[in-house]
Amino acid sequence: RVNPTRLLERIVSLGACGALPGGGVSRLALTDADAQGRAELLRQMRELDMEIRIDPVGNIFGIHAGVEDAVVMMGSHIDTVSTGGLYDGALGVIAGLEVVACLKDAGIRPRHPVVVAAFTNEEGARYAPDMLGSLVYSGAMDVDDAYRITGCDGSVLGEELRRIGHCGMQSGPRDIHAYVELHIEQGPVLEDQGLNIGIVTGVQGISWTEVTVEGRSAHAGTTPARLRHDAGLAAAYITMGLSDMVAAMGPAQLATVGALTLTPNLVNVVASRAVMTVDLRNPDNTALCAAEATLAKLMGEAEARYGVNVSHRTLARFEPVPFTPALVDTIEATARQMGLSCMRLYSGAGHDAQMIAPVAPAAMIFVPSVAGISHNIREYTHPDDIMNGANLLLRVVTDQAGL
Amino acid sequence: RVNPTRLLERIVSLGACGALPGGGVSRLALTDADAQGRAELLRQMRELDMEIRIDPVGNIFGIHAGVEDAVVMMGSHIDTVSTGGLYDGALGVIAGLEVVACLKDAGIRPRHPVVVAAFTNEEGARYAPDMLGSLVYSGAMDVDDAYRITGCDGSVLGEELRRIGHCGMQSGPRDIHAYVELHIEQGPVLEDQGLNIGIVTGVQGISWTEVTVEGRSAHAGTTPARLRHDAGLAAAYITMGLSDMVAAMGPAQLATVGALTLTPNLVNVVASRAVMTVDLRNPDNTALCAAEATLAKLMGEAEARYGVNVSHRTLARFEPVPFTPALVDTIEATARQMGLSCMRLYSGAGHDAQMIAPVAPAAMIFVPSVAGISHNIREYTHPDDIMNGANLLLRVVTDQAGL
Ligand SMILES: NC(=O)NCCC(=O)O
Ligand SMILES: NC(=O)NCCC(=O)O
């Protein structure tokens, strides 16, 4: 069984990197805070005598040696959004280290090497798409394309990677026997149902679009409404239209306008430009396509109604990803054997596991999030739930690794 | 008559200060660009042997000596919005200098000293309220209150004033015989009507409110719509509601949400906070109060619908200001004598003249704006129209000053 004190201490040490004054953390990918977090992670890995590899996109792999080539990998990410908590991502990485610590304590050299991965820029908050590090690792994105991505703050991914010294020369393990990711649910379902564990069957579809509205700056006091080309008003129209769409499509469809920037952003100037992000999600790809069609329709309506030009580019588009059924079954059976109450559910958030799933057996374990709150500094998961998840991870990984 | 080449050259020299690469100018009040503009203005005033005074809020007064105490003042401002043109404000100041140049050429020492004023922060784009310099000069705002105002970029007015060295020790002329401000219309009416000159009867009411929506940051992929407290969506709701209000109230009512800032402003985080500006205008104060009541209603509805907290503070509130009827009549009669076609109209934009009107006879002259465009780098007024306006100003001012 895992050591609760040791596990929680590791979480707190990592959480100190990028800690916000009012609680929570801001550790956007490849910022100084992320560099601190990476240094702390490397320190913890070295303490466990793990072999460390950093790949060209900054993914960190800590390896506890085994006998064969194929590895059992645990992993997640340590980047956060700028209003993040201690657990999103960090839990999967730190619990992985705790599993290794347990193997080390027991002096076990498993058949399959046991690897803990921390993937770069999972959140996608600074650089789109999300799950970028695992996407590159899985071979679905070229690393040179990743280097060229411009972030929401104008920074360029490749430059930031080199700046913080995490543009590695090594490659991660190629042969994955199984990938298991422990993560907080980040939603309200498990708590609602009073259950210990979520057996994650897959991840819903994710569609991110950046919408740019080009209007015309004009004087707020002299320009009649009919002569305006108000980019801000067009953006509000699209935002409200998406909200109406969600009401019409029902709770499976989500839509979020999380970022919106007006130019020149002054009180008495009609906005000449609005750049907004649209995050659409649905577990059903056909429904998600319908939502994207609604967005397209709203953009067209905004052009016609407000005399603006609306363009868009896709920041991320991932179809729903099912996890490997056999591995999902194994995890569920193990949880039940251990007396943990559980249910199957799909993930609302994107996760690195979904990028591994196309290339290797992959699945996830969820533990409850208090009030379903995440991407918020009040994100919290009770220590008991953390220990349940970590113990389940330990059991599944040791079973998979073969002792 | 004014000298067209000399006048236009002065406008171009001032326009070089804060010039934008694609045309137009950004000379927000008390920035380095404004400091350059002020230096250029002082240079031009010295060239005309004017006595220069700078008051504690940075208003610049150039004085061409006369015989009596009471002055005839021309004036406007040289600050701009960040997407401004060459004429908004600058025209009134530079045309004033051209009037002085004509007096000087003719060796005339008028009965009333002739003063050219450039008032600080007329635009209100950096520091609210607008017309701040003339408001302080007129005695309606305490200079110490002005010093404490925080700008849209977080700067503090008093600090910026000292930084650029324009926190003067002198005071402007106290006794104003007449104040006449030449300005571009910034709207489409004169061009529409094919007229040379607008005789401005007054300025419409202006209401600026900063609305702050406090919601809760949440995960865009896991948080059901019914559990969200989406500050960005609430801001969009208020924005659309104001647009509907304008449609219902008719063209006399204007509403603009020119600035909107979301926090944390990330693609996959429901916004925890939105700060937006609302600019409401109407020539009728009762109607403007009704629009303000609608804004209050929308803020309440947003709270109820989106589970957010909405607070607000007034950034500026000016009732409609009528100009001095006798002076308005004089200007109109003079224009007609000169063979200029003209009409009476009220101003949609706020102007320094409206702050002088309560303390001295004040009125304004408008010249046409091409396509009514202003607060846009494509703002333009034809040289012929500029000369018409400047010649009318010359005639009115020399009449008022008494030769
Ligand atoms: N786990 C997590 O919050 N991932 C971020 C990617 C997303 O779902 O937006
Ligand atoms: N003249 C002018 O554009 N003034 C700015 C103040 C306002 O009307 O918003």
From TrEMBL, chains A, B:
InterPro entries in the record: Amidase_Cbmase, Bact_exopeptidase_dim_dom, Peptidase_M20
Binding site for Zn(2+) 1: 77, 88, 183
First-tier enzyme category under EC: hydrolase
Free-text cofactor note: Binds 2 Zn(2+) ions per subunit.
Gene3D superfamilies named in the record: 3.30.70.360, Zn peptidases
Sequence positions that bind Zn(2+) 2: 88, 123, 375
Cofactor(s) this protein requires: Zn(2+)
GO MF terms, alphabetically ordered: hydrolase activity, acting on carbon-nitrogen (but not peptide) bonds, in linear amidines; metal ion binding
Keywords, ordered alphabetically: Hydrolase, Metal-binding, Zinc
E.C. number: 3.5.-.-
Keyword Metal-binding: yes
UniProt cross-references to PANTHER family, sorted A to Z: ALLANTOATE AMIDOHYDROLASE, ALLANTOATE DEIMINASE-RELATED
UniProt similarity note: Belongs to the peptidase M20 family.
NCBIfam families named among the record's database cross-references: hydantase (TIGR01879), PRK09290.1-5 (NF006771)
Protein name: Hydrolase
Organism from which the protein derives: Komagataeibacter europaeus
Higher taxonomy: Bacteria, Pseudomonadati, Pseudomonadota, Alphaproteobacteria, Acetobacterales
